Amino acid sequence: MKVGSLFAGIGGFECAFLQAGFEIGWANELDKDACNTYRANFKHKLLEQDIKDLNPNELEDVGLISAGFPCQAFSIAGLQKGLNDERGAIVMEMFRIIQAKKPQVLLLENVKNLVSHNKGETLKFILETLKNLGYFIHYKILNTYEYST
């Protein structure tokens, strides 16, 4: 299955996908330093630009989209402004790309506090939006120390 990646960072998901036998079609990241690291490790298409400027019609069709969308707006380490924070509201751009590309599978990642942020209303909004886009949702809190490379 071919994968597209939003908020790719330095390519952690891509590394895992490649090890599992997936093919990477494209990735998107805004941070210049993250993009430099990404390019040092991967050769596939990296779109170094704001997700707001991504044209989904110019993205190759993929079966899976992964997105580790910004966590600062939901994290207990931040101000927890959620969707009222520009970094939190960026999920709307993620939904725009998902709606246009219609991948079979989504893999979304964020901080544990997303589940309880705003008394669960933020997660409820995200889940309802994804359901309205036609997705069956299963979410789970994972502890990274339980998984090895």
Question: How big is the Rg?
Answer: 15 Å
Helix fraction?
A: 25-40%
> What is the number of E strands?
5
SSE string, helices as H and strands as E: EHEHEEHHEH
**Count of all domains:** 1
CATH topology: Rossmann fold
Into which percentage range does the β-strand content fall? 15-25%
The global form is globular
Low confidence ranges: none
What is the CATH first-level class name? Alpha Beta
Q: Assign the structural class, choosing from mainly alpha, mainly beta, alpha/beta, alpha+beta, or little secondary structure.
A: alpha/beta
Can you list the strand order of the major beta sheet? 3-2-1-4-5
Instruction: Supply the number of helical segments.
Output: 5
Largest sheet: 5 strands, parallel
Q: What's the rounded overall pLDDT mean?
A: 85
CATH homologous superfamily caption: Vaccinia Virus protein VP39
CATH architecture designation: 3-Layer(aba) Sandwich
C-alpha termini separation: 21 Å
Describe the model.
This protein has 149 residues and is α/β, with parallel strands linked by helices. It has one domain: Vaccinia Virus protein VP39 (Rossmann fold, 3-Layer(aba) Sandwich), CATH 3.40.50.150. The protein is 30% helix and 16% strand. It contains five helices and five strands, in the order E-H-E-H-E-E-H-H-E-H. The protein has helices at 12-19, 32-41, 86-89, 91-101, 121-132; strands spanning 2-6, 23-29, 45-48, 64-67, 105-108. It has a five-stranded parallel sheet with strand order 3-2-1-4-5, covered by helices on one side. Strand 1 (2-6), helix 1 (12-19) and strand 2 (23-29) form a beta-alpha-beta unit. The mean pLDDT is 85.
